Amino acid sequence: MKTDSLFYRLFQRAPALVFELAGLETPIIEGYQFRAEEIKQTA
Q: Which of these, 18, 21, 41, 43, has the minimum number of CB atoms within 10 Å of its CB?
Protein backbone atom coordinates (compact mmCIF):
# COMPACT_ATOMS: atom_id res chain seq x y z
CA MET A 1 0.00 0.00 0.00
CA LYS A 2 1.35 3.40 -0.92
CA THR A 3 1.38 6.21 1.61
CA ASP A 4 1.61 9.94 1.12
CA SER A 5 4.01 11.22 3.75
CA LEU A 6 3.77 14.81 2.48
CA PHE A 7 0.07 15.10 3.38
CA TYR A 8 0.59 13.20 6.62
CA ARG A 9 3.25 15.67 7.77
CA LEU A 10 1.27 18.67 6.53
CA PHE A 11 -1.94 17.75 8.35
CA GLN A 12 -0.03 16.66 11.44
CA ARG A 13 1.49 20.13 11.71
CA ALA A 14 -1.67 22.03 10.73
CA PRO A 15 -4.78 19.90 11.44
CA ALA A 16 -7.15 22.85 10.85
CA LEU A 17 -6.01 22.88 7.23
CA VAL A 18 -8.19 19.83 6.54
CA PHE A 19 -11.31 21.85 7.34
CA GLU A 20 -10.11 24.94 5.46
CA LEU A 21 -9.42 22.95 2.28
CA ALA A 22 -12.84 21.29 2.54
CA GLY A 23 -14.50 24.71 2.85
CA LEU A 24 -15.83 23.91 6.31
CA GLU A 25 -15.85 26.08 9.40
CA THR A 26 -12.84 25.28 11.54
CA PRO A 27 -14.02 23.82 14.87
CA ILE A 28 -12.25 24.37 18.14
CA ILE A 29 -9.52 21.78 17.80
CA GLU A 30 -8.15 21.92 21.29
CA GLY A 31 -7.22 18.38 22.20
CA TYR A 32 -7.44 17.25 18.57
CA GLN A 33 -4.73 14.77 17.61
CA PHE A 34 -3.82 13.74 14.09
CA ARG A 35 -2.59 10.18 13.73
CA ALA A 36 -2.41 7.57 11.03
CA GLU A 37 -3.79 4.14 11.76
CA GLU A 38 -2.04 1.29 10.01
CA ILE A 39 -4.33 -0.53 7.61
CA LYS A 40 -3.13 -3.70 5.93
CA GLN A 41 -3.91 -4.28 2.27
CA THR A 42 -5.52 -7.63 1.48
CA ALA A 43 -4.09 -9.84 -1.23
A: 43
Residue 14 above 60 pLDDT?
yes
- Total Cβ atoms within 10 A of residue 15: 14
**How far does the chain reach from its first CA to its final CA, in angstroms?**
11
Nearest in space to 8 (alpha carbons), one of 30, 29, 28, 38: 38
Asked whether 34 and 10 are in contact (CB, 8 A), the reply is no
Is 40 contained in some domain? no
Structural domain for 19, as ranges: 1-25
Put simply, whether the predicted model's pTM sits higher than 0.90 gets the answer no
